[in-house]
Design goal:
By secondary structure, the protein is α/β, with parallel strands linked by helices. Helix content is about 35%, strand content about 20%. It has a single domain (about 1-284), classed as Alpha-Beta Barrel (TIM Barrel). Helix 2 (about 65-80) runs parallel beside helix 3, helix 6 runs parallel beside helix 7 and helix 7 (about 220-235) crosses helix 8.
């Protein structure tokens, strides 16, 4: 299982847009939709595991191809053949159960202009396939840099219509650590503001990378400021904060010298969060 968790390749058969992974955080099979095979992103995270953004030709999203690849995979899954795939032969059967279709890939999904239409079609597919496959969620994994945009809000209103969730990145308590970790021209205050607005409307999971960044780790003061940011988001709609996911590095990263931190460090951060806030926290 460790090998399956640590390997999330974006390639599947001859697909361009859709790929299956066994996800620890989703608790089983997650069907990824990668709208950024060109690595286009608004962040350039030090711990990014998708490779450099430079040198990739911009690829417009083929919405019909996205839908076709989703339907083809779901039909393949429904036939029972996916469970027999050699690539997943060592994965327990319960971990091959479909948990979600998730907008997640090599960049930031919300910055492509086709985002609203992709969301609409994903929701239609969910309606059509749930009676055949059982319930599964629709999710967006995002850095929250553009979720306030009207076109993104239009897409989210459809994608998240039936118990869907936003899984959003929040890696910092201060602007200084944000610049080191996420390396974005945007400011941390914009991300927190976007998340505070989003949680008022939709269920939200916060995903936080905790790592050794070229010999530097989050200080106690940094962690305290992070919890303050988390508290501000939580207070906007406590019922919509699904959980906080703390995780560390398990795959090769864009920047050299980014290393995992021990489980004990993550557990200590978890304790500080739960001492301050009534929220569910999981460590990975």
């Amino acid at each position: 299982m460790i090998a399956a968790w640590s390997s999330h390749p974006r390639e599947w058969e001859n697909n361009t847009w859709v790929y299956p992974v066994i996800s620890r955080r989703a608790g089983g099979l997650s069907l990824g939709v990668n709208l950024n095979p060109d690595h286009h992103c608004s962040f350039s995270c030090a711990y990014c595991q998708s490779g450099p953004q430079e040198g990739h030709k911009r690829i417009p999203v083929d919405i019909d191809a996205v839908e076709r690849e989703l339907r083809n995979f779901l039909d393949f899954y429904a036939s029972g053949e996916f469970a027999k795939c050699k690539a997943f032969e060592n994965v327990p059967e319960q971990n091959k159960l479909l948990k979600d279709i998730c907008l997640s890939g090599d960049g930031e999904s919300t910055i492509v202009k086709e985002f609203p239409e992709v969301c609409r079609r994903m929701r239609e597919i969910q309606k059509e396939y749930t009676p055949k496959l059982g319930a599964f969620k629709l999710r967006l994994i995002t850095n929250a840099s553009h979720i306030e945009a009207p076109a993104v809000q239009q897409g989210l209103s459809q994608l998240l219509e039936s118990d869907g969730e936003i899984w959003a990145k929040l890696d910092a308590g201060t602007e200084e650590w944000f610049k080191k970790m996420n390396r974005s021209p945007l400011h941390l205050t914009k991300i927190i503001d976007n998340l505070t607005k989003a949680i008022k409307l939709y269920p939200l999971c916060i995903q936080t990378m905790v790592c050794d960044l070229q010999g530097e780790i989050p200080s106690e003061q940094e962690i305290d400021h992070y919890i303050e940011n988390l508290a501000a988001i939580h207070s906007a709609n406590p019922d919509h904060l699904v959980e906080v996911q703390l995780y560390t590095v398990i795959r090769d990263t864009l920047l050299k010298g980014v290393e995992p931190l021990p489980k004990e460090f993550l557990e200590r951060v978890k304790t500080k969060i739960t001492d301050a806030l009534p929220v569910k926290v999981r460590c990975f």
